[in-house]
Amino acid sequence: MFELDEFQNLIRLVDDAETIHEKGQRFEELSAYLFEHLDGVEVIERDVHMASEEIDLVLWNAQTEEVLRPWEAVILVECKNWSEAVGAAVLDNFVNKVRRRALKIGIFIAANGVTGNFVKGDANDRGAVGILRSALQDGLRIIVITMDDIRAVNSLDDIRDMVKKKYCGIFVHKFL
């Protein structure tokens, strides 16, 4: 059951984290909490380490939650609690993790968003938003969630609305 007090405490723990390890770990815990209370969603794996890469969260989507019915059964989540926006190379790495697993949907949670300015129509943009645009052309749908988005959550309905808006937004190039 989603508990607002517990959720807000997790946000405080993220804000109070001091070491890089602590910041990453707490951000992943907050990110997991964001999704694991949706109907039919379960965090199956955390911090999966493979020979050449890591996956922060692997979600199982039983597709019983209305907003996630069009989504695949397996959803990869990347968490970046950085003090600045995440650049194209890091986002491209995540897009390729999704692609290598023959998945079509991923969630990129970046505390301070991603670089780029495509929303304003800069077709020459080489920032991370340009990577999202290119991924969409290849059939990959990656939503980006920021800490501001997370702070606006007060209920499960807020999570549902956020996911719906982020998902629909990628089709009209509103990635952020």
TrEMBL record:
Residues 23-116 form the Restriction endonuclease type IV Mrr domain. GO terms for biological process: DNA restriction-modification system. InterPro entries: Restrct_endonuc-II-like (IPR011335), Restrct_endonuc_IV_Mrr (IPR007560), tRNA_endonuc-like_dom_sf (IPR011856). GO terms for molecular function: DNA binding; endonuclease activity. This is Restriction endonuclease. The keyword Hydrolase applies. SUPFAM superfamilies: Restriction endonuclease-like. Signal peptide: none annotated. It comes from the Bacteria. The keyword Secreted does not apply. It comes from Thalassospira povalilytica. Keywords: Endonuclease, Hydrolase, Nuclease.
